[in-house]
DNA sequence: AATGGGACCAACCGCCGACAG
DNA sequence: CCTGTCGGCGGTTGGTCCCAT
């Protein structure tokens, strides 16, 4: 742990490295009395020898009230996968859909589970072909269920995050607030896993996103994704 | 028991946009 | 309009833990 350990930035004198409980206490007290923001003032007000950036990061990722310390649930993982297909590496945007989760946490999760997977093009195509066949077969069975969720398969394709509310939550096409959906994550999970057309289209979108980003994005193998979801969100 | 690798996590870095002076 | 500062974001790094071999 010598990378940051008690090392001071030579130019500005900011301490780096892991935070101590005393430093956390000072930061919590500062935010409690001054609110979030004005991070550059933290060192002046509290005597904390940390940069504003470091203070903000510590607060947002670790100290902020309401943060979930538990592991991501399969439902949350499913939401992340699906939102990543729509939003790409917009971790902060994805995090807004998952109360109590930070962009850093989601980013770490994605990187750990999917970033390393370089999709093989041939395998990818083959899996898509097989998947399409399966979907045609399953379509009849799912029609009734899907109709209860949305009016047409295209409805899901057209989920369009137009803007955000004052609460910072996105609004989707039909003016429903997504938080209402993720308040019931079981519903949300069923929603996104039940509609195979939706997934198929999202993967196509993901391909586009990856291509547009010059291949530097965190695209995952679609086959792995569907396998993952069909396992109920557990890695094999 | 030793070790190698993957998962997880905390934290830093660099870049960018907004905004005030 | 220009410039400096600040906050936010995505990318990256490296330590720790756990498990399989």
Automatic annotation (TrEMBL):
Show where the Myb-like domain sits: 11-63, 64-114
- What is one GO cellular-component annotation here? nucleus
Q: Which InterPro entries has this protein been placed in?
A: Homeodomain-like_sf (IPR009057), Myb_dom (IPR017930), SANT/Myb (IPR001005)
Keywords tagged on the record = DNA-binding, Nucleus, Repeat, Transcription, Transcription regulation
Where in this chain does the record put each HTH myb-type domain? Answer: 11-67, 68-118
- Protein name from the UniProt record: Transcription factor WER-like
- In Pfam terms, one family for this protein is Myb_DNA-binding
């Amino acid at each position: 742990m010598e990378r940051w350990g008690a090392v001071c930035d030579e130019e500005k004198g900011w301490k780096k490295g892991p935070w101590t409980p005393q430093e956390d206490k000072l930061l919590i007290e500062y935010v409690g009395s001054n609110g979030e923001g004005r991070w550059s003032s933290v060192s002046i007000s509290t005597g904390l020898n940390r940069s504003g950036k470091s203070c903000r990061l510590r607060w947002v990722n670790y100290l902020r009230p309401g943060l979930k310390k538990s592991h991501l649930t399969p439902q949350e993982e499913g939401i992340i996968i699906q939102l990543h297909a729509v939003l790409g590496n917009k971790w902060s945007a994805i995090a807004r859909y998952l109360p109590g989760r930070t962009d850093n946490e989601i980013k770490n999760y994605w990187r750990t589970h999917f970033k390393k997977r370089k999709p093989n093009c041939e395998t990818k195509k083959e899996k898509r072909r097989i998947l399409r066949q399966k979907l045609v077969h399953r379509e009849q069975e799912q029609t009734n269920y899907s109709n209860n969720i949305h009016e047409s398969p295209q409805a899901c394709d057209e989920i369009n995050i137009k803007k955000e509310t004052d609460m910072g939550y996105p609004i989707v096409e039909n003016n429903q607030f997504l938080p209402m959906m993720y308040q019931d994550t079981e519903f949300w999970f069923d929603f996104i896993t039940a509609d195979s057309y939706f997934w198929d289209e999202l993967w196509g979108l993901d391909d586009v996103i990856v291509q547009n980003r010059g291949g530097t994005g965190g695209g995952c193998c679609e086959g792995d994704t569907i396998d993952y979801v069909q396992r109920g969100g557990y890695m094999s």
